[in-house]
Amino acid sequence: MAQNANPAAVKFSIDLFSIRTSGWTPFQYLDYCAKWKATVVHFSEVRFIGSLEEGNLKQVRAHADKLGIQLELGMRSICPTSKAFDPKAGTAEEQLTRMIHSAQVAGSPIVRCFLGTMADRVGPIPIEGHIQNTSKVLRNIKSRAVDAGVKIAIENHAGDMQGRELKMLIEEAGKDFVGACIDSGNPLWTIEDPHVTLDQLHPYVLTSHIRDTAVWRVAEGAAVRWTRMGEGNVDIDGYIRKYRQLCPGKALSLEIIVTAPRTFAYLDPGFWEGYRNVPAWQFSRFVAIAEKGKPSPAPSKPEDQAAREREDLEESIRYTQRLLA
Q: Which of 15, 101, 107, 291 lies at a C-alpha separation of 20 to 30 Å from 297?
């Protein structure tokens, strides 16, 4: 039997953050994604869908239906103590309630959101405290989510939580209505092997963000650079195969972000302030990836950032679709 014979094995998806500077209307985004045979389009932030007015959401849903595309809606931080949280938009509960209603109108089965960033791993509140505060917010809106038939997909985002920590948040909040938007690039920003993240979170996965990463040793510790698909050294091919096996029917959503290297100076004792509870066996998996890696230079600065993003995404789509086929 062919590898892709099971239609439930994968839903090919595009996260619009991949082409975040294009400045298109939601209808233009949908048309573009349809051209690349996406069956799910992940509107990871409100700005991509334009507005949460019901009329707009219904029009976007109708256009997606015409193209045979499922919508997924998202927002930003829901942790009131995170440095990434925007209190000007209302309380975390108010923001989530608006998004749950919007998801219901748009036909999105989820609301994607996140706790914060790596900046929340240090400071007066430890990451465990932020996890507790986020869990409380989620429990406060549980009835609204359940009544609407919408689940909350929490991302392991920008170095905020390792897989085991997100698992703890999901289980504390309630795995009957909270799950994971698993990101394959962000684990490296928490000095974690993304395969470990997938092993820990796959029972809770609702959707995904997929991209490749290059990791290599430097004098201070390790360097991490997000890349196009196929240009990293974290075995992204094996990750996708494992994702298809462990998360059947879920969206495989490309979020392609190509960056300059970021250094994680784990040989400096001060680095460990935000990582004191990281298990040694997990950290050793990250180090093993870095030891096998080779330096990956930063990409040149483009004259047209939007065009570069589309080029990076389209090359990654071709690579991923060949792999899936």
A: 15
